[in-house]
Amino acid sequence: MRHPHTRTARRTLVGALAAGLLCTTGLAVPAVAAPAPAASARASVTPARADGLALTPPMGFNNWNSTNCRAEFDEPMVKGIADLFVAKGLKDAGYQYVNLDDCWALPARDANGKLVPDPVRFPHGIGAVADYVHSKGLKLGIYTSAGTKTCNNAGFPGALGHEYSDAQQFADWGVDYLKYDNCNNQGVDARLRYTTMRDALKATGRPIVYSICEWGQNRPWEWAADIGHLWRTTDDISDNWGSMLSILKQNLPLAPYAGPGHWNDPDMLEVGNGGMTDTEYRTHFSMWSIMAAPLLIGSDLRKASEATLGILGNEEVIAVDQDPLGKQGAVVSSEDGRWVVAKEMKDGSRAVALFNETGSPQRVATTARAVGLPGAAAYTLRDLWEHRSYNTAGTISATVPAHGTVLVRVRPDRHWAANPPAVELGLDGNLLLEAGKPATLTTTVTDLGRTPATQVSVALTGPAGWTVRPESAVRAPAVPTGKALRTRWTVTAPAGTPTGSYDLTLRASHRSPGGVRVDSALALAAGVVVRPPAGTSYLSDLPWLSAANGYGPVERDTSNGESAAGDGHPITLGGVVYAKGLGVHADSAVEFYTGGGCRTVTADVGVDDEKDGRGTVAFEIWADGRKAAATGVLTNAMGARPLSADVTGAQVIRLVVTDGGDGIDSDHADWADARLVC
Prior knowledge:
Radius of gyration: 26 Å
Strand order of the largest sheet: 8-7-6-5-4-3-2-9
Low-confidence stretches: 1-44
Largest sheet: 8 strands, parallel
Distance between the termini: 48 Å
Oligomer: single chain
């Protein structure tokens, strides 16, 4: 749970995407090889514990993200989660730990210094709950802190100075998993505190998985492999895109430190809590799995939708996470937000994530050789979300939706020809159009397979009243390996169509040489936009294409404030108050349509005074993928700095704020007096 004295600032609200790909099906295949860890990184990893526990990343549930300390966190709720594990097939999928977080105890120990379960929440005690969970073939986890008190403001007792007594109580109750937090630690050395609890747990004689939760402050990946079975690498996750993305980026470089019995833990899953789209939740689940992260459900399973259960229960994705080789996926490439991450699997195959960080569809591509697979005539590519197999000549690629991930498993296979060729549906250009004006775009159907795709056809459809007309061929008798059917289209939204995002669907059909028909579809989001007026406009008065923010929503004409919309204050930089501007929080990106008719962007930028001297950020202005201006690192003490960029001819501009390279904490940033000249 969260440290009470430092607020994590990774929450974000992703605005409407005026041009984004919502989902993708027909994809392309083949391979990405993860680079080997540097020898220095490998040598720094301490030996893992040899107790046979957590040989694959723990899977289960933790209540904190869904209930916090509210009264609904109680014995019936915990037992109900165990029941749902069985009834919804989650136990069969591999989930086994039902973990209690903070607030299960009374604030005071008894006369003998023992922990006392809250008699209102748990009238039959923790042991009875453990018995019930065990009766379902599951395991029970519990929480405390390596400090004098836990993280909740109610002041529940921590285990510092009580390690052996508390560990014995946990063992006597039948606890199987301990999450050991970091609050109220009195400045005692972290390694000493966590080692003491390790020894206390070992002394009980009961096998208990030990989760170190010190938020990565002391780089536990460098020293904790022989102390705990997993260690948090970051501060707490929040249920938004910015938080998840920030944590993902912090955890990815730590691949050399993970392995059976010693895992990097980027915090629990937010899937199903409502702050992200299903596309983003699939990315969350895919990337946690390819990172061999613990999969601890953080949503309320009592209210889980079928879509949520479908993500959490995808056994092909779970198999990537639980692969017994225990390798964490490594980054192969990450150019311009197009990520390729590859994970070596025990059977010699590679799991490959094609991840699109950006706010618009992107082609993400790699090769079988790049992900570490040996040369072969062809490969079998399995799409782990579509649950379909294809053959590929060696290219692994897909047009990936905004914030989406395509997850595949690729292997050399003598029987590759039994599968139809992989076909990638794609789009050249963007899908921004002005109402009443024809826009031209080109779609592609590319054969990635070793065998030709035959009887290829393509169709593009739009909303009722829109005109979608092909200007070139929509059929081809055959498309050979590496070639594409390219079709040019004219798309017109009716005059008067309101600005916003509208669905288009690209559908394709082809046959394998054996006559197997394969249908695929690519859902596109077309953005109807309005060209900015001539002259000078405040950006806070213009509609944006998309807005991603590290904590709460982007605010117009106020500072970022906290997590709620509209809770900002007057924009203030170095004591100077501004009436106009944008209030954001790192990591942030706000996009505006300029239509090629604007010249300059100007603003006074800096860290807002509302954070009392804290915060370190950097500002960037991008024009159609080109960095047009940047500030370097700014601190709160530096006040306002002028920033100007030439954006002549750009169709889209993007205002970006990063954390300045020192992690995200209190990074409240202002684009004060931000203006666009057209």
